[in-house]
Write a sequence for this structure.
């Protein structure tokens, strides 16, 4: 089991945003984390990445926990954020150098991994450019490359399609499917349900900080008595019928 979230409760100060969450992402599986704005998706991801400390519960990555072995835990993970995080005064090459140092990867090894990705996203001629000056879509490609070159066991992705052009979206989907085939466990939060349904094996639906439902599209359709419905139809029906709260 690559990623296991058990009875996770957490949030800001003393106010829980997520409550008693439990779900798993197995090796070779892509799980979609979906829900309205304010449902708790980003808060869940922040806890998994160690950016927030849980009130209670446990998160395991290949049976490692952040408390027991923080360095080994973090090296198992890579993260693609919703908003690209680039350093103003560093070139693309220097961003990759920092990644190599952070994950203790030899520079030659990292560049062997990075080169095909740089070519795929048409950035191979921009290593000495400053990503701060790139478009948001190009900055997102920098985030994708930086995450993939670490060769992670578990990938955590928050709204990856925002800012990407249609070709880049297709290329990124293929990369995720390749990583899945290689045995990676992938958790992806997204509002783009049509894209998610194409590549995700199952889904966790959050509402108001709790797991409202989880399963494959077929299992969700059966659970809510919506035969022959796609994910978007199921989600729209459930959100309206259950009066999902939207904090946007």
């Amino acid at each position: 089991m690559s990623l296991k979230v058990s009875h996770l409760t957490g949030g800001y100060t003393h106010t829980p945003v997520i409550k008693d969450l439990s779900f798993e992402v197995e090796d070779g599986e892509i799980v979609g984390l979906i829900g309205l704005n304010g449902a708790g998706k980003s808060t869940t991801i922040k806890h998994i990445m160690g950016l927030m400390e849980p009130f209670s519960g446990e998160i395991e990555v290949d049976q490692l926990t952040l408390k027991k072995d923080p360095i080994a835990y973090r090296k198992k993970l890579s993260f693609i954020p919703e908003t690209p995080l680039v350093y103003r005064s560093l070139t693309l090459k220097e961003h990759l150098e920092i990644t190599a140092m952070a994950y203790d990867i030899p520079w030659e090894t990292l560049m062997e991994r990075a080169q095909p990705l740089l070519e795929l996203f048409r950035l191979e001629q921009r290593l000495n450019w400053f990503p701060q000056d790139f478009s948001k879509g190009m900055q997102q490609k920098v985030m994708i490359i930086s995450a993939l070159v670490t060769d992670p066991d578990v990938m955590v992705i928050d709204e990856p399609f925002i800012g990407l052009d249609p070709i880049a979206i297709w290329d990124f989907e293929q990369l995720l499917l390749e990583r899945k085939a290689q045995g990676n466990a992938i958790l992806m939060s997204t509002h783009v349900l049509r894209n998610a349904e194409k590549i995700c094996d199952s889904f966790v639906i959050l509402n108001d900080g709790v797991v409202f439902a989880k399963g494959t599209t077929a299992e969700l359709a059966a659970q809510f008595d919506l035969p022959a419905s796609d994910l978007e139809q199921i989600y729209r029906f459930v959100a309206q019928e259950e009066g999902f709260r939207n904090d946007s």
Notes: The chain has a mean pLDDT of 93. DSSP finds nine helices and nine strands in the chain. The longest strand covers residues 15-25.
